[in-house]
Each structure stands twice: as structure tokens, then as C-alpha cells.
Amino acid sequence: MPSKSNNAGCLGVFLNWGKSFEQPQPPNLFPYAKQDNFLSAGELRFYHILKRLIPEGFTLITKVNLADLFYVPRPNVNKGARNRIDRKHVDFVICESTSMQPALAIELDDSSHNRKKRIERDAFVDQVFAAADLSLLHIKVVQSYDEAQLAENIRSHLGNG
Q1: Cβ(51)–Cβ(36) under 8 Å?
Q2: CA-to-CA distance for 132 and 71, rounded, in angstroms?
Q3: Quick one: CA torsion of 31, 37, 40, 42, rounded to 10 degrees?
Q4: How far is CA 127 from CA 24, 133, 144, in A?
Q5: pLDDT class for 152, splitting at 50, 70, 90?
Q6: What whole-number distance in Å separates Cα of residue 56 and Cα of residue 137?
Q7: Would the pTM of this model clear 0.90, i.e. be above it?
């Protein structure tokens, strides 16, 4: 006797005739695939420029989650503070190589940063960085970067200028 959930009538039985003989497929517990491009074209181009410009003794990291950069002191008092930063990231972080202590973060601002929601998000992120006393440098995406000026800007934020 068919179960109530499989009772589709004569037409349903006919249309599903071959399916009744198929083995049911278990759900794929790991439905993941590798991204073809970890960085966007603009991020990759800027990454290669940054690698050349950061001073010796520093390491460049990409796509860093804010929850990996910052912690919330007294989380019981500051409920929800970690959740507000958990799904946000910055494009680049420059760390001191020996300690991997974050020294400077860089956000590459493309046209998406002109949208109202993104402007609000950026203002919040700026406040998080200021509260934690870590410099965040916003760099507008352009066709060609003035590498000397960019290097000087980075060095001055790192205290090596």
C-alpha cells in the first residue's frame, strides 16, 4: 500500500514510473567547489602593486575578516558587538612579519562603495578601526596608481615615513 505522501494517482504513477526504480540520492554533505578567482581583477592588480611597495619586514594578507582582526572585550557586556563585524572583511592587511601583528588595513574602494548601504557599512567599519586604534586606508580604484605616492602613504601609516 503506497504511503500517503507517494499517493499521486494513476497519472502520477505513470509519470514517475522510472523514478521508483532509482536509488534515492543522499544529500551532498560537501557541496563545495574552489573559486576560480580568489581576488577580483582589480584586487589582483592592486595586490601585485602592494607586494612591491610594502617595506621589508611586513607581510601582505588579503580578504581579512574583521572578527579575525578584532575581539570584543567583555563580550557579556557588549552583546552583539562581534556579530556586527563577523561577516565583514577588508581587502588587505599589512602585518609585521615577525609577530604578524596587524599594522595597517587597506580597503580598495570601487564604484560599489558609492551605494547608500555601502557608505553606511564603510562608516561603521571606519569607526571599528578607529576604536581599535588600527589605521584603515581607503584607496579609490583607478586605472593607473601613482606608486610613489601610494608607497609614501603606506610608509607614513606604518610609521616608516
Answers
A1: no
A2: 9
A3: 180
A4: 52, 10, 29
A5: very high
A6: 19
A7: no
What is the DSSP code string of 90-151?
Answer: EEEEEEETTT--EEEEEEEE-GGGGSHHHHHHHHHHHHHHHHTT--EEEEE--SS--HHHHH
Per-residue pLDDT of 77-103, as tens digits, reads 888 999 999 999 999 999 999 999 999
Domains and CATH numbers, the chain: 41-158 (3.40.960)
Residue type, 40: S
The H or E element that residue 61 is part of is: strand 58-65
Taken in order 92, 96, 100, 102, the sign of the CA dihedral is: negative
pLDDT band at 122 (very low <50, low <70, confident <90, very high): very high
Q: Residue 155: enclosing H or E segment and its boundaries? A: helix 147-158
pLDDT at res. 102? 98
For 61, what's the count of Cα atoms within 13 Å in the CB-facing half-sphere?
20
Least confident range from 70-74, 75-79, 155-159: namely: 75-79
